[in-house]
Amino acid sequence: MFCNSCGTEVSEFARVCPNCGEPTVKVETREVLGTKWADFLGYFYFWIGCLFGLIGIARLVELSGRSDDLLGGKANLSGYITVAVVLSLVNIALLAVAAVAIINRKRSAGKLVCAVFGYEFVSTIILLIYGSAVLGPGSFSGSDGVRMILDIVLIFVNASYFDNRRDIFVN
Ligand SMILES: [Zn+2]
């Protein structure tokens, strides 16, 4: 190969040009790294989000099969489960919109990602209120609290991440 800087032929294994001292290894620019990271984020949000969404829906379907056993058959869970499944499906759709925006470097990507976490926060509250009305206050679990705190943290983390990368999300 040849040195990008002075044109001297250099060994494939040389890390710097023996003539001018320039690095021979193509240094990835912030732009390239930033775009790769953005692609990773886009796919990550989409696939991980879909996976958790589908696991959640599967658990709800399983719960609906056992709804007669719960609380000695006093609980009517079908309304709650319908709401929870609809909320999960909307969540997956929002994730897909955010992932597409990230991959296409849309300027709106950051706001969409924050909106997904905001939506998750609100839908957790809706399900907690609905769940405690149907199942009693015992339906609140620690994981709901952790998830809500995580949603808020992720809104701030992503707002700052996308704000610092306005040069990448320009479309
Ligand atoms: Zn050189």
TrEMBL record:
Superkingdom of the source species: Bacteria
TM segment ranges: 40-61, 81-103, 112-133, 145-162
Stored InterPro entries: Zinc_ribbon_dom (IPR026870)
Residue ranges of domain Zinc-ribbon in the record: 2-23
Protein name: Zinc ribbon domain-containing protein
UniProt keywords, alphabetically: Membrane, Transmembrane, Transmembrane helix
